[in-house]
Amino acid sequence: MVIPVKHPQLPLGLALKDSARFESFFPGGNQEAVQSLRSSAAGRGESLVYIAGPAGMGKTHLLQAACHYAAEHHRTSSYLPMEELLNLSAEIFQGLEQLDLVCLDDAQALAGHADWERGLFDLFNRLRDSGSMLLVAAAQRPGRAGFDLPDLASRLGWGVTYTLKPLDDDELFAALSYRARGRGLGLPEETASFLLKRIPRDLPSVFDLLDRLDQASMIEQRRLTIPFVKSVLDQLK
Questions:
Q1: What is the dihedral sign for C-alpha 148, 154, 157, 158?
Q2: More confident of the two residues 9 and 85
Q3: What is the DSSP letter of 201?
Q4: Per residue in 210-224, is it b (16+ CB within 10 Å) or e — as a string?
Q5: pLDDT tens digits along 32-45
Q6: 41 and which of 69, 87, 201, 223 could share a cystine (Cβ 3.0–4.6 Å)?
Q7: Distance of alpha carbon 182 from its chain centroid, rounded?
Q8: Which among 181, 35, 110 has a CA at the least distance from the CA of 189?
Q9: Residue 53: left if φ>0, alpha if ψ -120 to 50, beta else—which one?
Q10: 3-state class of 177 per DSSP?
Q11: What predicted TM-score, i.e. pTM, was given to this entire model?
C-alpha cells in the first residue's frame, strides 16, 4: 500500500495518478531504466535508482508507477514531490526508513537548502541501514544537480543512474498510439499525426491531452476524427 508521510504540516491531496503505471509508459530507448525501477519497486533490484532528465520526460510518471507496482507486491511506499513540499520542513523525512520504498521527485529543488540537503543525506543513511529502496528523479545527474553537500551528491551516485533519452518522432507517435490502445480509445493514424504536429512534444502534455480527448469523446459520443479533435483543441486555447 502507498503510505502518506505522517507529518502535521504535510498538505492533503498528494495522491498518485491511477493512470501512472509501468504498463502505460512507452519506454522508447529507456527500457533498461524502466526495468530497473520496476525491479526495485518489487524489492528485487538496486537499493538506489536515480533517473535524470529535463521536464517532460516522464520521470514523475515512472516514480508514481513504482509506488503502484510496490503496492501490487504488498510493499509500503511514499511518493514525495519535492518542489511542492519545499515550503515545509525537512522533518517530513523522519520515519520514512520504516517503509519499503521511498520515491523522491524533483530532487534538484533541495539543492542549496542546507537543512533539506542534510535531511536527505540522513534519510539516505537510514534507508540503507533498514534495507529500504530509494528511487530519485532530478533534472541532472547527482554530481550536476547543484547540491552543496559533497557527501550527498556522492551518496546519490552510489546506486545506478540513468539519463532518460527523449523519444524521437516515430517513438512519440508510437507512445501516443500505445497510450490510446491502453485506454481502449480508437485513435486513427491520421488523427495521431495531426495531433503531434499541433501540441507540445513532451509526454505529460501529450498524455494529458489524450485524457481530455477521451473524456470529450465519451461525453459527445464522437470518434476521434481530425475535425472533432480540432474542435476540442480550439476549445482548449
A1: negative
A2: 85
A3: S
A4: beebbebbeeeeeeb
A5: 999 999 999 999 99
A6: 69
A7: 18
A8: 181
A9: left
A10: helix
A11: 0.83
Domain 22-163 has CATH 3.20.20.70: no
| SS3 label, residue 217 | helix
Q: CATH 3.40.50.300: which residues of the chain?
A: 22-163
Three-state DSSP at 134 gives: strand
CATH of domain 169-236: 1.10.8.60
Q: Are 206 and 200 in contact (CB under 8 A)?
A: yes
Among 113, 63, 64, residue whose Cα is nearest residue 90: 113
Element (DSSP H or E) covering residue 137: strand 133-138
Task: For the beta carbon of residue 32, count every other beta carbon within 10 angstroms.
Answer: 11
Provide CB contacts within 8 A for 51, sequence distance 6+.
Answer: 33, 37, 59, 62, 135, 136, 137, 138, 161, 162, 163, 164
Question: CATH 1.10.8.60 spans which residues of the chain?
Answer: 169-236
Q: What tens digit of pLDDT does each residue of 201-215 get? A: 777 777 787 888 888
Helical H segments across 47-168, by residue range = 59-72, 82-85, 114-130, 150-156
